[in-house]
Amino acid sequence: MSRKFRTFLFIFFVMVFAIGAPALVLYAQGYRLNLPFEPGKKLVVMTGGIFVKTTPKQANVFIDNKLEKQTDFFFGSALVENLLPKKYYIEVKKTGYQPWAKNLNVSEKQVTEANNLILFPNRLDIYAAEKDIDGILLSPDNSKIALRQNKETGWSLKLYDIAQDITLKLADQNNFSAKNASFVNWKWIDAKILGVSTISDKTAVDWTIATDRNPPRIAKSLTIANATSTVELASRKIEGNDYYIGQDGFIYKNNQPQNTAKISSAQITVKPDATYGLWIFNDYFFVKVNSELFALKPGANSFEKIYDDLSSEPILSPDGKKVVMTSDSEVWIFFLKGTNGQAAGNTENKIFIARFSEKIANCNWFNSDYLLFTAGDAIKAAEIDNRDKINIFQLAKISDISSTSRNNQPPVMFWNAPQKIIYLFSGTTLYKSKPIQ
Question: pLDDT: is 73 or 222 the higher one?
Answer without folding.
Answer: 73
